[in-house]
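Instructor's aside before we start: the two examples that follow are unrelated to each other. I chose them only because their records fit on one page, so don't look for a connection. First example below.
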Amino acid sequence: MKKQTPFDATALLEEAEASEHKEAYRTLERNTNYRIGAGVRLTPPNPPTFFVEILIYLCPSFTNANLNALEKSLTCLKELKARNYTLTCQDGNCISCEAAVPKQHLAEEYANVKAVMKNSFS
């Protein structure tokens, strides 16, 4: 049996085709500040849309607001916006950042945004 990678476009497509919502998603990295994932959406007759999504958690402690953490989040959000990610407020105290990515560039984009996250939150 072939081992799947998070960027296995064929496996993501098969999963999306079998799903009720015609979408498949893999979480690639998660910590208290953010979550990074990759996925695909099917919206026939259009071709499949591959994407990278980052959720930025604004107040991970859910107690007192941490201004230092908020500043880091803002820096990160500005960088993602400059990289043409759409930013959308979500329930649960987070902002969803998403960009469509050609399937052959999913691994490269993940490496790039992972570096952005590390730089922003270190």
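Example two begins here.
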Amino acid sequence: MLVRLLVSGAAACGLIATDAAALAEPAAARMLKGRTAQGYPIKAVAKGQSFRLIRFEADLRCRDGSILTLIEGGFLWTGTKRDGSFRDAQFGKTDSVYFRGRMSEKGIRGRVRLTDKERGSPRCSSRWISFRATPR
């Protein structure tokens, strides 16, 4: 009886340790690449139910009629809801980036909007720009 109990306890501890190791192991990050509706490339990395935009470009129209092309990067992680939808706003020193959409196994699709106001220059903004990024 004692031998059987020790063997069962050792087996149970092994199963618990295996499950704990599987839970502690982080989900593998997936690189996502795609294009915006303006034709510029967009990169993101997805991990579990969250993602982070790595880099993208966008054309903004300024109040004086000129066009400003921005290269954006350095975003924080954005979590998704249970259905995969997301909505986020992130702010830099001179710019604001708003994005929303949906993340799935196929990748990320959504829309992004930017505003920028550098000292001594006119305020610039974009309309909502759609984008799609898939695993590569």
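Residues 25 and 77 are 19 Å apart (CA to CA).
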